[in-house]
Amino acid sequence: MTRRDPQQEALASLTGYQLQMARLPLMEAAHAALAPFGISPAKVTALALIRARPGLDQSTLARCLSINRASAMKLVNLLAERGLVERRPGRNLRSNALHLTGEGEAQLPAMIACLRDSEAPLLAPLSAEERRTLQALLLRLAKGG
């Protein structure tokens, strides 16, 4: 007879705990998939945000990523050093408008494809309909309702 651990059962009933437990292997697979690019999933997210909103500034990028401005500046510096992002004059003298470079535009689709491929084995136990439902529910949670 297996002994039931009430604390483990309590954790198992928490959505946040279940999301974190699902996130761990997804992030491990994502890091491995992006290793050839020498980039992290967070940096790919930043590139995708810049691609979706050309000209956004570092402060806006920081808010979108839920990081502080200093961290956003380090992130943009790294992406700029890698030749993936460039700074152009912004709305005023104190801001820069961020844009993907040609190299960033060229590499981002391949990075996203690698991420998609890295998720496939982990999502394989779900049917196509279940994956669509999971995506829709996660999107609703991310939007706050």
List the SSEs and their pairings:
Elements: H1 6-12, H2 15-34, H3 41-52, H4 58-65, H5 69-81, E1 85-89, E2 96-100, H6 102-123, H7 128-143
Antiparallel strand pairs: 1-2
Helix pairs in contact: 2-6, 3-6, 4-5
Description:
This protein has a two-stranded antiparallel ribbon. It is elongated. The termini are far apart. The protein has seven helices and two strands. The chain has 145 residues and is mostly helical. Strand 1 and strand 2 form a beta hairpin. The model has no long low-confidence stretch (mean pLDDT 93).
Determine the structural class based on helices, strands and strand pairing. Answer: mainly alpha
Distance between the termini: 42 Å
- Biggest β-sheet, characterized? 2 strands, antiparallel
SSE string, helix = H, strand = E? HHHHHEEHH
Number of H- or I-type helical stretches: 7
| Largest sheet: spatial strand order | 1-2
Structure summary, number of beta strands: 2
Provide the low-confidence segments as ranges: none
Helix content: 55-70%
Give the percentage of residues in beta strands: 5-15%
Return Rg in Å. 19 Å
Short description:
This protein has 145 residues and is mainly α. It has helices spanning 6-12, 15-34, 41-52, 58-65, 69-81, 102-123, 128-143; strands at 85-89, 96-100.
List keywords for this structure.
145 residues; mainly alpha; two-stranded antiparallel sheet
